[in-house]
Write a structure and sequence with these properties.
The structure is a homodimer. Chain A folds into 3 domains: 2-85, Rossmann fold (3-Layer(aba) Sandwich); 114-174, Dna Ligase, domain 1 (2-Layer Sandwich); 180-357, ATP-grasp fold, B domain (D-amino Acid Aminotransferase, Chain A, domain 1). Helices cover 31% and strands 27% of the residues of chain A. The first copy, chain A, is built from 12 helices and 17 strands. In chain A, strand 13 and strand 14 form a beta hairpin. In chain A, helix 1 crosses helix 10 and helix 4 (89-96) packs across helix 5. The radius of gyration of chain A is 20 Å and the shape is globular.
């Protein structure tokens, strides 16, 4: 089986690695010749909407998938005319538009913060009136890692926020005083089998994920509800592959924040911390293979390495640290690698994560 | 850090994978352009004694290691004149000569079956007289997977055995009625730190490893003795990297059978089954990085896939099976992949191994 992967970042790289063990030949497509994935397997250099590059990808693939959600929908449609594309364009379209995303969440029974569509300043005013203050204004498209967002705390700053996000179609949401952020990562096979990993607790700084803990502490009571929602969402989208929903936890309630129709940063811990990794199960799903167990193996923490890399010697001096480097040049705010820590109990893992954190430029205060 | 690896088989491939995560750039050297390792990373095509190929390898390496023990010693010496080679030639030389190997075992306090050197028919007669019948005649060099060996059960068949092994310098050993075979896999860093994985129980058929179980059942009492011996051996050889000793267990005694100065088939389970895999720790050692924990994560079984591959669909239908395919064409007796099974207890792992075995052409009877 040959899989074409649109995107050659670290997610593509980890998919390629998983494929190599399974005998699945992955080829990545990325505009950069030195992408992380190009360093570990065959790659095609080209834009995501370059017909010639897509032809070349299709020629070496039995099925196509992607590692980021901003793949042009036309690309997915154009490829789908020739060969199977999983997840299908519906998942992409939903994930690319915060309004469609939130609407779909509500349709499958997943509660969301109150929201309203924003087209212009007048509709923003109406939206703020509806959802109250503070509110969060988010572009409908192309937002990630906290980009394309503005918090509106006072009505006088409404115009500033509108300008800050570039005066583009947007969604205005109630600012929810949530207790914490978690994510549910699930995978659905071609024949509809669904498996979910345990809920992950996520800690962001400056809009970027810094730390994930799995299984999320004391979240057993939320697991069934989260699984029910993600299953309903995947069924509605007829999604094949991994899908992630980021959720806010407010008291005993789960609120849908956003989805990613792909493997996810908050699932990197599954390489060492789960019976089957998200990368392997994504490939199994899109290739029509049976899914692997998603149970956790003890407890895990995943710390992102952002902006600059610590000395590997110092990281590996912790004999329980698993270092993953992506082969990328350092740049502020860039994800360069991650470190996974496993342990038999949550306390050990938290303590170890704190030790490793001293090597990383994580903005204070330490999240946990 | 850049590591040159002599040999591009499956061991080289798994080293390359481990290196990619650590940011260690591995380049393999192999006579075959389509070697398993060449499919996952940069490679040089050339003979192991081709000076031009060795020059090219040296040019892209900060340190050189190897993935099989029959690397020409001259190759190791030639490279060592230019850059560090780990493990050093002493380990290679010892591992390539069964007489040196057994002699070194005894020198570090590891008991061995009674043995004698054989140069010709006359010395073979003397050797059999010394060690008794049945005896095992083994070529001193280039034996692996049961090749280059003949069992002598009756004195009349002595000449047949001598012809069978090709009338080359040999070693004649007492045939030991052992209870089972185990291996100790250990790693030593450049600064002398030593870590050992738990003893592994190995089952061979037709001279080829079929099944490993780790930790070896009821072997806790033997662990300390095995660790003491392997440590002494590595110190004597000033070995850097992974080293494996295959041992016979006879009652409460360990007898040294053979060593491999490299990562070993009986250590493949460490990828999922141990805190740090043998591949990662080998690279850490040769690169001068700190070693990772070698504790087992529960119990594991590893089944070799030999000769022909089972349908991946059938293997992966066991949701707990970890499939590793090497990208090799099928051929009788050839190692094409392996399947690792993990579980919380030994009984579960044995039961699962039995289930997977039904998909494999393992000669009857099932080993366990």
């Amino acid at each position: 089986m040959r899989v074409g992967i649109i995107g050659g970042g670290q997610l593509g790289r980890m998919l390629v690695h998983a494929g190599q063990d399974l005998g699945i030949e992955c080829t990545t497509l990325d505009p950069a010749a030195d992408s992380p994935a190009a360093k570990v397997g065959p790659s095609i250099v080209g834009a995501y909407d370059d017909p010639a590059a897509l032809d070349r990808l299709a020629a070496v693939s039995d099925v196509v998938t992607y590692e980021f959600e901003n793949v042009p929908v036309e690309t997915a449609h154009s490829l789908a005319d020739r060969l199977p594309v999983y997840p299908a364009a519906t998942s992409l379209e939903t994930g690319q538009d915060r309004l469609a995303e939130k609407t779909t969440f509500t349709e499958v029974g997943l509660a969301v913060p109150m929201f309203a569509a924003v087209e212009d300043l007048a509709s923003l005013e109406a939206a703020v009136e509806a959802v109250g203050l503070p509110a969060v204004l988010k572009t409908r498209r192309l937002g990630y890692d906290g980009k394309g967002q503005a918090v509106i705390r006072r009505i006088e700053l409404l115009e500033d926020a509108w300008r800050a996000i570039g005066e583009v179609p947007a969604i205005c949401e109630a600012f929810v005083p949530f207790d914490r952020e978690v994510s549910i990562i699930a995978v659905r096979s071609r024949d509809g089998d669904v498996r979910c990993w345990p809920l992950v607790e996520n800690h962001h700084r400056e809009g970027i994920l810094r730390l994930s803990l799995a299984p999320a502490s004391g979240a057993a009571a939320l697991q069934a509800a989260a699984e029910e929602r993600v299953r309903a969402l995947m069924e509605r989208l007829d999604h094949v592959g991994v899908l992630t929903i980021e959720l806010f936890v407010a008291g005993e309630s789960l609120l849908g924040n956003e989805m990613a129709p792909r493997v996810h940063n908050s699932g990197h811990w599954t390489i060492e911390g789960a019976q089957t990794s998200q990368f392997e199960n994504h490939l199994r799903a899109v290739c029509g293979l049976p899914l692997g167990d998603t149970d956790a193996r003890g407890h895990a923490a995943m710390l992102n390495v952002i902006g600059r890399e610590p000395d590997p010697q110092a990281v590996l001096a912790f004999p329980w640290a698993h270092l993953h480097r992506y082969g990328k040049a350092p740049r502020e705010g860039r994800k360069l690698g991650h470190i996974t820590i496993c342990g038999d109990d949550e306390g050990t893992v938290r303590e170890r994560a704190l030790q490793v954190s001293t090597l990383l430029p994580i903005p204070e205060p330490w999240p946990i």
